[in-house]
Amino acid sequence: MTIPDLDAVRAAAQRIAPYAHRTPVLRSHSLDRLADAELHFKAEHLQRVGAFKFRGACNAVFSLDDDQAARGVVTQSSGNHGAAIALACKLRGIAATVVVPRSAPQVKLQAIADFGARIVPCEVAQEDRDRVTAQVLAETGGELIHPFDDARVIAGQGTVALELLQQVDGLDAVIAPVSGGGLLSGTALTVKALKPNIEVWGAEPEGASDAFESLRQQRRITELVPNTICDGLRARLSERTFGILSRHCDGILLAHDDAVRAAMRMVFERLKQVIEPSGAIGLAALLLAAPRFSGKRVGIVLSGGNLDLSRLFPTA
């Protein structure tokens, strides 16, 4: 298995620079007081397609040689990665097919369709996602770009941390959401290569705690059935991301769904930003573990902002 290094992350940053946003870092003194820490929010919900996923997808799509690109791209996604692949392929002018579980929010399905990708539905279980993806690959001969188990994607996600360390000096810790582990792996590899004394923590829902259990038990946990409002955090670690996190991550913080809802509201009210539940998990987890970070300077990745507003504002 290929594991990207800092050179790969830096190369990804150059490759995606013409297409990806350099997202800002946001502050809130009221949230600092609440956490008893200095919080720096990396605003990846303001990235193209509304999520950090565009970084990894863009790096992977523009890494393809012409023969690979001509066959088109296939991926599986609950939404944000699918939209990111669809946009990256649109920018390169190649075909994209996205295998999407039927539980995906409508706002994310619409984004995939709007960018011109073909959507193939599947059931929610990871085994069904994998089975349908394999069928599509056999039918199309396309290039698989996995949402997290891909060195090109991990390197692209690592550019979040690369930017954050350029924007904020003296961080003591960085917290990023973990699902399949692409973002957290890229974050951990980048931070530990540049600033090994900075702690790197994952944030995960209690109802989808496979990464927490995997690191605790020192084996990859695959049997847990996720149950959380964080629809973007229901995947499980791959062998590749498990290996990276086992070596480079300081641990996983957990947050229950009520804490996620509370953190979303805080971001809405105090940062004036719209984020999805998956994007709020880092703040939720930090507040539940506040004594650990007291007095420290902490970077928190707000990973996405694709909230299904139809649930808040139902039409007649």
Task: Please outline the helices and strands.
Blueprint: H1 6-16, E1 25-26, H2 29-35, E2 38-43, H3 53-63, H4 66-70, E3 73-76, H5 80-92, E4 96-101, H6 106-114, E5 118-122, H7 126-140, E6 143-144, H8 151-167, E7 173-177, H9 182-194, E8 199-205, H10 210-217, H11 239-248, E9 251-255, H12 257-271, H13 277-288, H14 290-293, E10 297-302
Parallel strand pairs: 2-10, 3-4, 3-6, 4-5, 7-8, 7-10, 8-9
Antiparallel strand pairs: 1-2
Helix pairs in contact: 1-3, 1-8, 3-5, 3-8, 5-6, 8-9, 9-11, 12-13
Brief sketch in words of this structure:
The chain is α/β, with parallel strands linked by helices and 316 residues long.
Model description:
The protein has 316 residues and is α/β, with parallel strands linked by helices. The protein folds into two domains: 6-51 and 155-311, Rossmann fold (3-Layer(aba) Sandwich), CATH 3.40.50; 54-144, 3-Layer(aba) Sandwich (Rossmann fold). 47% of the residues lie in helices and 15% in strands. The chain has helices spanning 6-16, 29-35, 53-63, 66-70, 80-92, 106-114, 126-140, 151-167, 182-194, 210-217, 239-248, 257-271, 277-288, 290-293; strands at 25-26, 38-43, 73-76, 96-101, 118-122, 143-144, 173-177, 199-205, 251-255, 297-302. Helix 1 (6-16) crosses helix 8 and helix 3 packs across helix 8. The radius of gyration is 18 Å and the shape is globular.
